[in-house]
Amino acid sequence: MTQTATTAARANRAIAWCLLVFLVAPALVAIPVSFTSENYLSLPWDGLSLQYYREVFTSPDWISSFFQSTLIGVTSAAIATLIGTLAAVGLWRLASPWGEVVRGIMLLPLVIPPIIAAMAFYRLYVPLGLIDSYTGLILAHAVLAAPLVLITVSASLAGFDRRLEQASRNLGASATQTLWRVIIPCIRPGVVSGAVFAFIASWDEIVVTLFLSKFSVYTLPRRMWNGIRENTDPAVAAAAVILLAVTFAAFLIWGIAQRRARKPKSDTT
Amino acid sequence: MTRTARFNPGWYLVAPLLVLVAVMFAGPLANILWLSFTDPEPGLTNYAALIEKDSLRRLVWTTVHICLITTALSVILGYSIAYAMANVAEVARQRMMLFILISFWISVLVRTFSWMMLLGRKGLVNNGLIELGLISEPIPFVRNELGVLIGMVHYMIPYAVLPILVAMLGIDGRVLQASRNLGASPAQTFWRVYLPLTKPGIIAGALLVFILSLGFYVTPAIMGGGKVLMIAEYISVQVLITLKWGTAAMLAMLMLGSVLGLLYVLSRFMKLSEALGGGRT
């Protein structure tokens, strides 16, 4: 059947590979640039230098942003994972039309453009005095990321055998025990994927952060944003590489969780 | 499973997220809707300005126009990738999928920054071309519509690929064989049989890209360099700098209404959780 791979199809395959490289390669240009020895954005033709990494790692501003992003990312991911997982299990238990309506509502944060979410949070936070606070940004990131957890955990639950739950209950375990000792361990790959998604969603987030942070809360993307607009400081390239490295680490963790999920024959992607 | 209990305890588990979403979104969005009709004065002034004011008309037109071009280019290029992916061996397909996934994962800020490094006035491409003596003046790639389009299409292609790929993988190979056996050329088979069969995927991909483009902020703001103003950036200026909440609220409601309307259409072509689960917005 596929013997009809015509010249056109072969040409298209070549084009597709070029496009795939085009999708990834330009975004990685920060890596060589971050090692430049010049004092402007350039490729390191005349020798490698770590000066911009030194600058980033010794500047109190960049270090503080790095820790703030980590703190906000970890905390908001923890909250998102907890409430997202609970919601997914709850909806799975309900298995009712009303539950599906509620699921639609809870997925809304994913489809509302970030700029509108930013506006909504801003509107809510000004009277509450939560602008420029850790609490405010963590809550905002948590509510944006929780639907991602809801999706990944629901996918895992779709492959979970309901009889295991019944067996656990019949053997005398309480509903809470069953949740923590039987259901959660079985859907762990979905929970881990969700947690990783949630962390990265916060780690990268810029639009909502632009609205909610001013001086005291200044995440890594927020500081990069300034650098991009002011232009041409290679230190921003070094910061971008650090941001990418963390994203890449998260990608690996996610990949491992996916592979684990696939092993016990239920395919959850 | 159906016990007689009226109240299913599952609701307790759902409650925290539901309450959080309601508090963080429903309340403030209702407030913004209210503002769009009442600030600075009650009535339809803000919405009328959409028709009366040249600047707003131009703003909406720029946004729609850029979103349409982005959608068309992303779908065409995405179709090429999806076609190649649908017609290679499993191993090669997974390798290609890895590229798509990596591009999903790379932060939009890092991508935009990278494009600025490459295409800026003193960027790597212009510097390289000048050193090679090919050009004497830098080519204006960014801070214009071209820059916005490059950045947006680059970001959106993967979102177009996935729904199209799903449609292609669902095609029964025997249909194509039948077309060939009945005497159609490979080109005819493609245009008359294959392409129409992938139409639901194309529509879903196009809608998804258009929806995401409508609210896109980061790339147009940076790569447009203030020269190409789209609705999202305009809203942020109104809220954070000129404090004109009425106009901002009206535009936000216009955007939200369009997004929800298009999502409804999209939901008829594919499961929304599938559309959104693949990547991150």
Features:
heterodimer, A: 269 residues, mainly alpha, MetI-like fold, 13 helices, 0% strand, globular, B: 281 residues, 14 helices, 76% helix, disordered C terminus
Task: Characterise this structure.
The complex is a heterodimer of chains A (269) and B (281). Chain A has 269 residues and is mainly alpha-helical. Chain A contains 13 helices and no strands. Chain A has helices at 7-24, 30-34, 51-58, 60-94, 97-111, 114-128, 134-158, 162-170, 175-186, 188-204, 207-212, 220-230, 234-262. Chain A is globular, with a radius of gyration of 23 Å. The relative contact order of chain B is 0.12. Chain B has helices spanning 10-38, 45-52, 54-86, 90-105, 108-119, 124-131, 145-169, 173-181, 186-197, 199-214, 218-223, 231-240, 245-267, 272-277. Chain B is an all-alpha fold. In chain B, 76% of the residues lie in helices and 0% in strands. Mean pLDDT of chain B is 89; it is low at 277-281. Chain B has one domain (26-88, 144-277): MetI-like fold (Orthogonal Bundle). Chain B starts with 9 loop residues before the first helix and ends with a helix. Classes of the chains: A mainly alpha (269), B mainly alpha (281). The interface between A and B is large, with 102 and 90 residues.
Q: For the CA atoms, what is the radius of gyration of chain B?
A: 23 Å
What is the tally of helical segments of chain B?
14
Runs of chain A in which pLDDT lies below 50 for 5 or more consecutive residues are: 265-269
CATH superfamily (homologous) name of chain B: MetI-like
Low-pLDDT segments, ≥5 res of chain B: 277-281
So, the CATH homologous superfamily of chain A?
Answer: MetI-like
